[in-house]
Structures are given as structure tokens and as C-alpha cells.
Amino acid sequence: MNHFQELGMVDHLEPWQRGTRSLANNKGMCGGVRGVGTGGVVSSSFCLLYRLHTLKPTKNQIQNTLNHIDSPYIRGIGFMYLRYTLDPKKLWKWFSRYLKDDEPIDVRAGGGNEMTIGQLVRHFLENIEWYDTLFPRIPVPIQKEVRQQLTEYDKKNQQNQKIDKNVINNINVKGFRTRSRSPCKNSRRHYIH
């Protein structure tokens, strides 16, 4: 199967295919083991993520992946690739412009965990875990800086939402109409009395 056929098969961003990974038998010293030691069939999304890693894409190719219009899963794989490979100092620069992206994506195998691309990006910035896999650790000073930037972003976004609500409320209070009730001058009938 070539990677174009595999792109069409991606319907989640979990590392394992649904129902192929059993955690019930992990006992004793293996109780907290992550990764391939616990078994399971690797998902198409993580196979493509690995393939992307072996291809060493250019900056332009990554940007095309992040802005892909056909599938949010291709975009999600691009964000995961960046989270695994990018220098932590550059994460905010790459991810910040996508925080408002409201394209929906269901990241869980079998469905049930729908979020937006913006929420996915935020999760990647704030957390180290992704469905029992670990992203590379972000150094503490950089993580503090990212959290501060997220807080500033949230404050700015809340202020913009308040401004939008005030504008909408003012329009509703003033009784703003989108069209006139009177007919156009050209369509008026002139009666001769």
C-alpha cells in the first residue's frame, strides 16, 4: 500500500488501532510500561508520522501539511511531527497562529473525543502525554514562557470577545436593520390625482 492510499485510511490520531492494545495483562514491574512492550497494532496515523520523519520534509512542505484543506488528520499528523521534532524554542512561533483554528477533528480511535485543531495545538503545547505516548520534554524555562504566552493570548482573546459582544448588543439595542422597509425610488409608483 502506498502512502496516498494510507492517507485515506487515517480517521484518528491515536498511536494504536482500536481494540488491539490490552493493558489488562500488565502486572508487577510491567504495570507502568508504555510503548510497544504492551502490544497493539500501530495506527495509520503513526505509520505516516514515522514516514514523515524518515522523509525529512522541508519547512515549506511542513507548512503545506499544516494548512492542508482536504483532511484535518493530515494537519494533525503535521502538528505531531513538529511536536516530536521541533526545537522547543520554536514551538510557539509555529503553533500560535493555529490556536483559533476551529476545524473539527475526532482524535480518538472509534470516535468520542472531538476537538478543534486549535484545541489540539493547545494540548500539544501544554502537555507531554498523548494517548500513552510521550512527547519530548519541554525545558522548564521555555514551558513557563509558553504558558505565559498562552495566558496573554487568552486575555487578549477574552477582550476581543467582550468587544464583539458589546458591538452585537449595541446593534440589537439600537434596532439595526439590514434593509429599508420603504421601496426603492425606482420601483415607487407615482399616482396622478
From TrEMBL:
InterPro entries: PRP38
Pfam families: PRP38 (PF03371)
GO annotation terms (biological process): mRNA splicing, via spliceosome
GO CC terms of this entry: spliceosomal complex
Keyword annotations: mRNA processing, mRNA splicing, Nucleus, Spliceosome
Record localization: Nucleus
Location (main, coarse): nucleus
Keyword Isomerase belongs to the record: no
Known function: Required for pre-mRNA splicing.
Family according to the record: Belongs to the PRP38 family.
UniProt protein name: Pre-mRNA-splicing factor 38
Higher taxonomy: Eukaryota, Metazoa, Spiralia, Lophotrochozoa, Mesozoa
